[in-house]
Amino acid sequence: MAEKYTKEQILDELTNILSEDFEIEKSKITPSSNLFEDLEFDSIDAVDLAVRLQDFTKQKISPDNFKQIRTVEDVADAVYELLQNK
């Protein structure tokens, strides 16, 4: 069974991933930060993030889960929903 995380824990892990794997200053990462405008993500970064989140959740992440994602909070919400449904 998949481990359950709070949204706060997911946001913390996401902040760590963005900081460590994508070399983004933690001060720039807020729930409302836009991945593409504020954090300068491109499509390759988005794919890399999805792969990294699969490692975190131990679950396959469908591209459909990430089509509408724009902000850090959107990512956390999508991961939270994914974990609740398993």
Order of helices and strands: HHH
Q: Unreliable runs, pLDDT <50, ≥5 residues? A: none
Rg from C-alpha positions?
A: 12 Å
Share in β-strands:
under 5%
Global mean pLDDT: 89
Shape: globular
As a percent range, the share of helical residues equals 40-55%
Provide the number of structural domains.
Answer: 1
Question: What structural class do you assign from the helix and strand content?
Answer: mainly alpha
Can you name the CATH architecture? Orthogonal Bundle
Could you tell me the CATH topology label: Non-ribosomal Peptide Synthetase Peptidyl Carrier Protein, Chain A
Q: Main beta sheet: strand number and arrangement?
A: none
Task: Walk me through this protein's architecture.
There is one protein chain. 51% of the residues lie in helices and 0% in strands. It has a single domain (7-84), classed as ACP-like (Non-ribosomal Peptide Synthetase Peptidyl Carrier Protein, Chain A, Orthogonal Bundle). It is built from three helices and no strands. The mean pLDDT is 89. It is globular. The chain starts with 6 loop residues before the first helix and ends with a helix.
